[in-house]
TrEMBL record:
The keyword Transmembrane does not apply. It comes from Conexibacter stalactiti. InterPro entries: Cro/C1-type_HTH (IPR001387), Lambda_DNA-bd_dom_sf (IPR010982), TransReg_Diox_bact_type (IPR050807). SUPFAM superfamilies: lambda repressor-like DNA-binding domains (SSF47413). Keywords: DNA-binding. Residues 14-68 form the HTH cro/C1-type domain. It holds the Pfam family HTH_3. This is Helix-turn-helix transcriptional regulator. It comes from the Bacteria. The keyword DNA-binding applies.
Length: 78
């Protein structure tokens, strides 16, 4: 079970944004050039992405990296 609050907050931000865009994990993975299982692991707080992967993930979510981080930080404060 993940214990890092930052990873959990990032996962929630990714899942919420993906849902807002009405995308499946597979669709997001294709857009971002990442694997669906990797997306799932991020959303569940089991993966801490590298900066490069975070940039690709943000682009797939139609966000800048800083916007995605900002969403995660908001999720971490709730």
């Amino acid at each position: 079970m993940p214990t890092d609050p930052a990873q959990l907050a990032l996962g929630r931000a990714v899942a919420e944004r993906r849902a807002a865009l009405d995308l499946t994990q597979e669709q997001l993975a294709l857009r971002a050039g990442l694997h669906q299982r990797w997306i799932s692991n991020v959303e569940n707080g089991h993966r801490n992405p590298s900066y490069s992967s975070l940039r690709r993930l943000a682009a797939g979510l139609e966000l800048t990296t800083s916007e995605l981080v900002r969403l995660a930080e908001r999720n971490g404060s709730t």
